[in-house]
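Worked Example 4.2. Read the sequence first, then its structure tokens.
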Amino acid sequence: MPEFTVIIPAWNEAKYLPATLRALERQTYPPREVIVVDNMSRDDTACIARAWGATVLTCEKRGVAHARQMGLEHARSAWVATTDADSHPIPEWLGFYNAATPGRTALYGPMRFFGLKDPYPLLTHISYSAFLHVARVMGKPNLAGANMAYSRKAALLVGGYAPVEAYEDVILGQELGRLGEIAYVPGALVETSARRLDKGVVQFAWRHIRNVTGHTRGYFDELRE
């Protein structure tokens, strides 16, 4: 059974990070290590991560791709799983991924928003799962950094994350797909913050459409504004 390093890029995430680390503590298949890559936060992000027992790395290059790449290069396990600092993997998350690793280079699972009134979390789960299905049928699996896992050796072999503002996770997934098999793991659910809807559903949808069609500007880094 492979061991997992969980990598979390973070920039001013003191509000959300404790719940994410708590979710990782509850994993039925515990990670070997948790790495929080602090992207020059101005709050207590790094202190909180250390207090929870995570390994903290400081990335002085602005951008989530640089933070994810630093985590990848410092990981010590055969497999890497990634999530975001405002996301909550279910307790069985790594267990589902562990069972799916044989013969694969990368894995990914569904997501839904938390912090919304019912039935919107369920609707986001259904709509995102449908989107992932369409992407798979089209031969373009969409791996998101908030919920993916991959062979560290394979990721390093393809050069890791592209140094772009956004879409770095999907680009890595595409490169890994050229190297070996990618599998969708429907049970490996991650709940993520609805804060990306703060500027409205229309703007969120537009930004997401632009990114999934290949644009590599903005999106998550807009949260820095």
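Now turn to a second chain, presented in exactly the same format:
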Amino acid sequence: MNRFLSMTFRISLGLILAFITLPLLVVLVASVSPTARIVFSPSLWTTKWYGALMSSRWIDPFLLSVELALIVTVLSGLFGLLAAFAVAYEKCPGHAAIMSFLLSPLSVPQIVKGVALVLFLSSTGFYTLLGTPGLIMAHVILTLPFVVRMIAGAMFNVDKRLDLAARVLGANRLQRIRYILLPLIKPGLFSGMTFAFILSFNNIPLSVFLVRPGETTLPITVINHLEYSLDPVLAAVNVASLLFILAAVFLFERIGGFSTQIHGGSK
């Protein structure tokens, strides 16, 4: 019986991994295909489509997406840290209701949030904020619940006896936060910031309502290109974006060591 369950688990795991990776392999092959039609002949594969990515048509949106993602990551990390500290660590009055409010954007579809932000900016006379300022605002609203939840989860697991011991030894509030709390919650903080970076960089439903000519993010540029042409350049863009995201995740993990929070080990 145990052998049957083990075999079933391995087969299921293999099917799940295949379901996830096979589409990625198709995109990878398409990005080196010599024609718009996918060719599975290594002798004919080419990298010319990656060379096309060096034009300003793709570089400018990529740089804007990176800049936007970095700003959103920092702001979400800062706001999420402050909110989680008040709600999860200090447990301010009404902390349960405040946490529900902070997580409430998760229950609203992104398209609805995008329309609501556009209507809000236009009705209040702040229509000029459409573009990068509006994108930052929208992406922070999108990513903040994830950051707050992950940091709060890390803070719930902090042993407050450590804070009490530091207080007895004469450490002030700032020292206790800097030398005890922040190192303990660093994996949760950086895991939340990593989610914020990925969500902001890849976002379409919110961004499509808030971009303006000359300030278009990479995902929106891909959608616009897809309306008029379906060629391997799009596959090359997706492969390059995937490699960039993987590099960013690796960098965040090296700094924050958030895999220790997932596996329960130590860095």
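Notes for the reader: Residues 76 and 241 are 22 Å apart (CA to CA). The chain has twelve helices and no strands.
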